[in-house]
Amino acid sequence: DAGVIQSPRHEVTEMGQEVTLRCKPISGHDYLFWYRQTMMRGLELLIYFNNNVPIDDSGMPEDRFSAKMPNASFSTLKIQPSEPRDSAVYFCASSAGPNNRDIQYFGAGTRLSVL
Amino acid sequence: QKEVEQDPGPLSVPEGAIVSLNCTYSNSAFQYFMWYRQYSRKGPELLMYTYSSGNKEDGRFTAQVDKSSKYISLFIRDSQPSDSATYLCAMRRNDYKLSFGAGTTVTVRA
Questions:
Q1: Size of interface A-B (CB pairs under 8 A)
Q2: Any chain A CB within 8 A of the CB of B23?
Q3: Can you name the residues that pair with A99 across neighbouring β-strands?
Q4: What are the tens digits of pLDDT across the range B52-91?
């Protein structure tokens, strides 16, 4: 398996633009997580899905952020409109639960810069 | 106060030394404890996980959990330059939400 695949690897955009980050989890994994990593706040969970259903989105910072999982092999995290403070590395992770819930496999991340 | 406290370092040690990392936490509801390793420009990868107090060993790595003190540790024996990375502790309650420490950056000098 190729692991968790995220795209794009880097994104540079201007303030006010819409940004869409993409994630393909490991096949067969039924949990998907979106994280954000910054120097100031470290690694924070934004939202997670189980069987394509959002379970907990309490980490989503604002209404400007939204996430979807239309099927078991694809998820998106959208920021609209983007702001400079959204600049961070965004990670997607997946796991096969429930007995393997702690073994989360992370993608390589998307480095977002909002100018 | 953050739920999980971890000294960000950086920590620099000579090759072959023992690396000692630790985290403290404030919420006694945390039941499951993990250590992730993150190389530069990469995603974190799970290194160790423990579900109870005590020690767990895996090769050169030993994880310790002391729930009474709310303190967890990771030891790396015979450290190698390839161990140079950021190490993040993580923990969770009886759900799927992991709370991460800030990460400690470790450099092992050849």
A1: 51
A2: no
A3: none
A4: 888 999 999 999 999 999 999 999 999 999 999 999 999 9
